[in-house]
Design a protein that fits this description.
This protein is α+β, with helices and mostly antiparallel strands. 29% of the residues lie in helices and 32% in strands.
Length: 189
């Protein structure tokens, strides 16, 4: 990694097309609509935040923590000048080339339009080109078919089972390996 994530974050913007883009989310972006989206059971049913009601302050604290984290970027997914969701690249380790990725679209009208897979693909390309990260992993609950489709469309493959979620059942480990020695195949669905 030639520049640290903390150096990259302030000027980072990834274009997704059709006016959509990613940039690190700021505290000023945290609105009541964002918080309401995180608290919506139809939106958060597959997210860890479902276990605790979110507030403006709890979400702002989360945004602050990610802004200060030298191994993470919490991207806002913007379309039509509105914040539609977040995508988090975290545990970025330049020595191993590995990181973890997760996405949450919390505006219902944007699910199923390809915005998620576009965002995942853009971050994967950025991670490989700018951060030398070649191995991205995501834990996805099998019942979350929208996430499964978005990650699969972005080139991720399910490689193994993880510990099941006690409430929602089976969870798969999905990986995108862009290293030259990446094995082909895997257990895709």
């Amino acid at each position: 990694m030639s520049r640290s994530l903390l150096e990259i974050k302030p000027s980072l913007r990834l274009e997704l097309g059709d006016g959509a883009y990613l940039r690190p989310i700021l505290e000023a972006d945290v609105t009541q609509a964002y918080v309401d989206g995180l608290n919506d059971p139809a939106v958060n049913r597959y997210l860890e935040v479902r276990r605790q009601r979110q507030t403006l302050e709890s979400v702002r604290a989360y945004v602050r923590a990610n802004a200060a984290d030298p191994q993470a970027i919490l991207f806002g997914i913007y379309s039509g000048n509105g914040l539609r969701g977040t995508l988090r690249l975290h545990d970025a380790d330049p020595n191993s080339g590995k990181a973890t990725i997760g996405i949450a679209l919390f505006e219902r009208g944007f699910s199923g339009r390809g915005l998620g897979s576009s965002a995942i693909g853009a971050v994967a390309r950025f991670a490989a080109a700018e951060l030398s990260l070649t191995h991205l992993a995501a834990g996805i609950i099998d019942a979350n078919t929208a996430s499964v489709r978005a990650f699969e469309k972005s080139g991720f493959r399910r490689i193994k089972d993880k510990e099941p979620d006690p409430d929602l059942g089976p969870v798969g480990l999905w990986v995108l390996d862009s290293s030259a020695k990446a094995p082909q195949g895997g257990r895709g669905r």
